[in-house]
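Form P-L/3: holo structure prediction, ligand protoporphyrin IX containing FE.
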Amino acid sequence: MGYLEIFLTIIFCSVFLLLLIPKNSLSRLPRNWPFIKLMPTMYLKSHKLYDKMTQVLAENNGTILFKTSWFTNLDILRGSELRKAFDFLGEAIFIKDLDEWREDKKFTHSFYKENQFHKSTPKIIHHTLEKGPIPVLDHISQQNQALDLQSLFNRYMLDATCLMATGFDPGSLRVRFPESPLLEAMDNMAEAVFFRHILPEKVWKLQRKGKENVRSLLTLNHILADYVSKKQKPATKNQQTEDFDVLKFYLSGSDIKGSSKKHTEETFLAENKMTLLFAGRDTSAALLTWFFYLISTNPLVKTKILQEISQNFPPEKRLFSKVEELSKLIYLHCALIDSLSLFPTAPVIIRDPTEEDWLPSGHKVDHKTKLILCSYSVGRTSAIWGKNWGEFKPERWLSDKGGMKHVSSGSFLAFGSGPWACPGRELAFVRMKAVAATILHNFGVRVSEGQRMSPSLSALLAMKRGLKATVSCTWM
Ligand code: HEM
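OUTPUT (holo model):
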């Protein structure tokens, strides 16, 4: 991060908190508020940003109104401004205004309902687990080295998502973590999203990394265009495959029921350009990291997960990829969902009302208001989860009959809710369960001691310094 970025980030955090926090709550916050003096403190304490929001929300019945200032970007990031900040995503669905979004949802979400898509998921999981985590962790366990689990999951999710989206495995998760232009470009762009989100356009355009981001965008475009052109060449008999991928689905040019649009390679690049890669990779990879951290501090939960696996599967089983098999792992599902409730990897959801309305709290909103729904705080509210709200407790998701309890979206916002809710939720759980079960069943994972756990300052709730661990092989 450059000095300008660090400085502006500090300003953003300081102002955000100063304006966010009602006066009667100030006494609970670090003392010595004068602006300049606290900048370094705020930067150091930025990991507590979401906790402070939660505390203040709890003191104000869950809703607060705050006004932003001219040098933060929160007020102006709407409509065309939001589009500018995310221009590199093309016509991505999640930056569209309501009317456009309604029209495009039928089109962009169409493949999630395809039978072929569901059939291809276990094959993709099998392929990527066999090529990635298994040999990589085997190798690491023999070398007696530590590795960064977050980096492993980032690479895994990139390969699995890219294979689903384009039919090509970029192979970024291999022994010795090879250099991957796609991975590097994605990481640069993810960082750019955050700064473009919080800083005024003139400032983010001046960023030292501006040129680097342009290069990353060119790299991403080049790689995706290359995948499209390879797909357009007639396949030889050996290359022909029945497997589904989103690019192939688009190239087939089929009509979508209820939508005036047609699938073509241009629409794949324009509408879905990187949306799937970003939405499908980082959220799941970050959550797996929090999950491994939580089970390392709660050995009883880990023991119960391992018991559930050994009760349902033979010891010699290596890979978990079939949806029916994974559906037997209910306690594991509960542990993942409780991790997500405590550490929602998309910690805030932003909405811009199009017209005047009233919130259930009695606050009036209009087109000038920005609504920030804090899913992080929802998972840490005693009114919803009772006294032990901060504890990692998968049991709270188990029904009396041993299945999953139904929890309303008001109590769990990690995937959003209503018509905007995440279309990848089911896929996300299948993939995260497959990775977690395969690793836990075959390897002993020991999170290294003495690490400082804090979230990164980013729109995504990931671990700032990753999660170091050593592994031992338990299957030989
Ligand atoms: C732990 C994993 C995941 C989490 C926590 C997550 C969370 C979210 C959230 C909070 C939203 C915004 C909802 C809203 O605005 O109300 C969203 C949207 C979206 N997600 Fe996910 N997601 C995850 C995995 C995935 C996966 C695996 C995919 C697909 C491969 C995916 C695809 C999308 C898409 C396309 C949207 C935009 C939908 C729209 O605006 O119509 N997500 N996700």
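COMMENT: Residues 93-94, 105, 161, 275-276, 279-280, 283-284, 287, 345-346, 349, 414-416, 420-424, 427-428 surround protoporphyrin IX containing FE (CB under 6 Å).
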